[in-house]
Amino acid sequence: MNTSTRVPTDRPIGDIEPVFEFRDDMPTGVTVADNGRIFINFPRWGGEVPFTVAEIRDRKIVPYPDATINKFDPKRPSETLGSVQSVVVDPVNRLWILDTAAPSFSTPVPDGAKLVAVDLATDKVVKTIVLAPTSVLNTTYINDVRFDLRKGKAGLAYITDSSVSGPGAIIVVDLDSGESWRKLNGHASTSADPAFVPVVEGETLAIRETGKPPVPFAVASDGIALSADGATLYYCSLSSRHLFSVPTALLLDRSVSEADVAKAVIDLGEKGASDGLEADDKGRIYAGDYERNSIRQRQTDGEWKTIAHDPRILWPDTLSVAGDGYLYFTANQLHRQPQFHEGRDLREKPYSLFRVKIDAGPVLLK
Predict the structure, then answer these.
(1) Which of 18, 160, 164, 331 is deepest in the core (most CB within 10 A)?
(2) Of 79, 111, 130, which one is at a domain's C-terminal end?
C-alpha cells in the first residue's frame, strides 16, 4: 500500500515578487516612474471608492494628485475624476490619468471622459484633454492608453474602447490640439470574438444572474502596446485569445479610409486570453493569460514564452514595464466578482501587485 501523502502538482514558472497588498478597493492599472514612484488606480465599479487614483507611498495608499480631484463632481466633470481605468507615466515624467467617467460601466458623463496629465516634479495637473463625443460614444468604455511623444507638436495617444454594448475601436488623440478620432470602429479585431468561451479557475466565465441563463462576457478592445520604434500598434480584445497589429501611420492619417486601415490589420495568432498588454525596448510583447494564471512574453521571432505561472496570478490585469528592469502587474480577481457568480462576491483580499524580472526597459518614444 502506498502511504505517500505527496502527489504531483502544477509547477510554477518564473519568480514573481510581491510588491504590495491592497486590502480595500480593487485595483486595475499600475505604472512606475523612473525614480521608482508607483501609481495605482481603482475604478468605481461599485461600492465606496474614496479615491480613484493613488500613489503607494511609505507602504500606504495616498490619493493622487490630491483628495479633492478624486471627489467626482457631476457639475464639474472635466475637473474631477469619475472612474479611472488606467494610469501611465510618459517619457517626460508626467502621469497620464485615463478617466472613463463611466462608473459601473454606465454611459459616460458628458465632458467627463478625459486624459489628465500630472507633472510628477510638482504633483500638479498641467493638461486636461476632454475627449470629443464623436470619439467617446454613449457605449464607450475607454480602457488603456499608450503614448508616442515624437508625433505632431506635442505627441499622440492611442486608447482602446473596450465597450461591452457597442463597437470597439482605437481612439487616437492629438495631445496638442486635443482632437481625437476613432479607427477600426467595430472591426473584428477590436470586437469580442463571438466564438470565445473563457474558462477561468475551471469554470466558464459568463454573466450569471439567479434564475436567468448565462450571458457571454463580451468585451471589446482592451490591451494595447506600442512597438519600440512606434511604427506598430499591438492590441487585443479581452474576449479573445488573438493578438492583432496595425501600422500606426494608418491610424494617424485621418484621410485613410476604414477599409484601407482594415486591410493592414494583421492577426498574429493566439497568445492566450489577455486583459493587459505591454512592450519593452528589446522588441518583445507581454500579455497576461487570465485563463492560465500566467504572464507570457512574445519573442522577436513571434514565439510565445511563459515567464510567470503561479496560482497567485488571479486575473493579471494591467502590465507595466519599469526602468528598473521589472514587469509590474496587478492581480485583482476580476473573474470572482458578483456578476459572474449569481451575486456572490468570491474575491478574497488582499488584491496583489507583483513584479517579475525581464532585464529590459520601457518603450520610450520622445
Answers:
(1) 160
(2) 130
Domain assignment present for 290: yes
In a domain, 186, yes or no: yes
The domain that contains 203 carries what CATH number? Answer: 2.120.10.30
What is the spatial distance between Cα 232 and Cα 176, in angstroms, rounded to a whole number?
22
Give the single-character DSSP code of 170. E
In this predicted structure, the answer to whether residue 20 has a pLDDT above a threshold of 80 is yes
Does 323 lie in the same domain as 207? yes
pLDDT in tens, 158-196: 999 999 999 999 999 999 999 999 999 999 999 999 999
The answer as to whether 281 is a domain residue is yes
pLDDT tens, 110-135? 999 999 999 999 999 999 999 999 99
Cα–Cα distance for residue pair 299/283, rounded to 1 Å: 8
Instruction: For residues 200 and 304, state if they share a domain.
Output: yes
Does residue 258 form part of some domain?
yes
94 with 74: CB under 8 angstroms? no
Residues sharing a CB contact under 8 Å with residue 332, sequence separation 6 or more, in sequence order: 26, 27, 28, 314, 315, 317, 351, 352
Tell me if 313 sits within 8 A of 306, measured CB to CB.
Answer: no
Domain of residue 224: give its range.
131-358
Whose grid coordinates read 454611459? 107
End-to-end CA distance of the chain: 68
The answer to whether the CB of 158 falls within 8 A of the CB of 171 is yes
3 state SS of 248: helix
Do residues 327 and 319 touch, judged by C-beta distance below 8 A?
yes
